[in-house]
Amino acid sequence: MWRRGVSLDELETLYRQRYDHFVRVAATVVGDGERGRDAVQAAFAAAIRKRGSFRGTGAVEAWLWRIVVNEARRLSRERKQPQLQGEPILSSNGNSGDDLDLRARVAALPERQRTALFLRYYADLDYRAIADLLGIEVGTVSATLSSAQARLRRELSEVEHE
Question: Which of 47, 87, 122, 147 is the most exposed place for a label (fewest CB within 10 A)?
Fold first, then answer.
C-alpha cells in the first residue's frame, strides 16, 4: 500500500514503543546517554515537522531510525571526545568492571561498526534496513558486523588470557 505522510498517532506510538531502543543507539553514536536522549528528542521533533515528506515507500520505523541516527551523528560531530555515560549499554557477566571494559571496547570501534552493531542488536533491524539507513550495501552490513564481532571477541579473549 502506497501512502504519503505519517500521522502524529503513528509517531507517538513508535515513540512510546521504541524510545529506549532509539536512545540506546543514539547514545552509542553520540557517546553519552544524556546527549543520546537529546538526539532522540530532536529527531522526533524533526520527524513531526517533516511527517508530510514521508514517501511511504518503506516502513515508518526505518524512516525514523534514519532521522535518529543522523541527528545523533550531528551531535557526535559537535563533541570532541565521546565518552559513554549513564546506564550500561552492554553487559557481560554482571560485573560492573567488565561492563565498563566492554563498553569502552565497543565505544572504541569505528563509528560504522558501532552503529551497525547497535542497530542490529538493540534496534533489532534487519540487514536491509541497516543498509538503507547507513547508505551501504547489505553485504557491507554483514562484513561490518562480522568485523566488529571478531574484534570484540579477539580483544575479550586476550583479556581472559592475561
Answer: 87
**Grid cell of 7 as nine digits:** 500521522
Dihedral sign (CA 146, 106, 20, 98): positive
Please name each of the domains of the chain with its CATH number: 8-160 (1.20.140.160)
pTM of this prediction?
Answer: 0.65
Number of residues that this document lists for the chain:
162
- Candidates 128, 158, 117, 161; CA nearest to 62 is 128
Q: What is the pLDDT of residues 64-88, one digit of tens each?
A: 998 999 999 888 887 644 444 434 4
Q: What is the pLDDT of residues 96-118, one digit of tens each?
A: 456 667 778 888 888 889 888 88
